[in-house]
């Protein structure tokens, strides 16, 4: 009886593995002949093939610019360097920065996250040390630390 249960479980696992393999092949049926990577659409496979051939069919039409790209997305992203368009604003309260690339905005947003974490830690550290810590003049250092962290934060937001 126990052997039958083991056999049944093994069959079930094999069946699940086969269906998972089939599902993966169905979701990514386009295979690169060069490196064997698979893709969900023929467009993505063709775009990938440019990485092997070195072909860059999308050319910048801006005067005196000879940049070429392997897909239209990168060409459109590049055009922002010519037009100065910055369609990605920082939504952090009081921050007026804008970026031409979403990746640059994401990196910038990390500075706000780091500053918030840093401020909280600086204030906690300085508050806990204000009762016992003093500098050479006998003054508490907590006020100095808070002012330093606030000015550092403000300068990075601008």
TrEMBL record:
According to its UniProt entry, this protein's organism is Euroglyphus maynei (Mayne's house dust mite)
Q: Which UniProt keywords apply?
A: Metal-binding, Nucleus, Repeat, Transcription, Transcription regulation, Zinc, Zinc-finger
Is the keyword Nucleus in the record? yes
**Record-level GO cellular component terms:** cytoplasm; nucleus
Q: Where is the composition biased (Low complexity)?
A: 1-19, 113-144
Protein name per the record: Zinc-finger double domain containing protein
Please name the PANTHER family in this protein's record. REGULATORY PROTEIN MIG1-RELATED
- Region annotated Disordered, chain positions: 1-24, 107-158
Cite a single GO BP annotation.
carbon catabolite repression of transcription from RNA polymerase II promoter by glucose
Would I find Repeat among this entry's keywords? Answer: yes
Give the principal location in a single coarse category.
nucleus
SUPFAM superfamilies listed in its UniProt record? beta-beta-alpha zinc fingers (SSF57667)
Task: Tell me the superkingdom of the source.
Answer: Eukaryota
- Polar residues compositional bias: what residue ranges? 145-158
């Amino acid at each position: 009886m126990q052997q039958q249960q083991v056999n049944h479980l093994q069959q079930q696992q094999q069946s699940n593995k086969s269906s998972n393999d089939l599902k993966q092949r169905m979701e990514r049926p386009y295979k690169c002949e060069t490196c064997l990577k698979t893709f969900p659409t023929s467009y993505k496979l063709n775009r990938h093939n440019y990485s092997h051939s070195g072909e860059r069919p999308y050319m910048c039409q801006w005067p005196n610019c000879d940049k070429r790209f392997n897909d239209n997305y990168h060409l459109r992203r590049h055009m922002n360097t010519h037009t100065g368009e910055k369609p990605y604003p920082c939504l952090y309260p009081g921050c007026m920065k804008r970026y031409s690339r979403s990746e640059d905005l994401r990196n910038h947003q990390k500075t706000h996250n780091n500053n918030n974490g840093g401020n909280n830690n600086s204030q906690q550290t300085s508050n806990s040390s204000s009762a016992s810590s003093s500098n050479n003049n006998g003054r508490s250092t907590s006020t100095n630390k808070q002012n330093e962290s606030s000015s550092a934060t403000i300068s990075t937001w601008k």
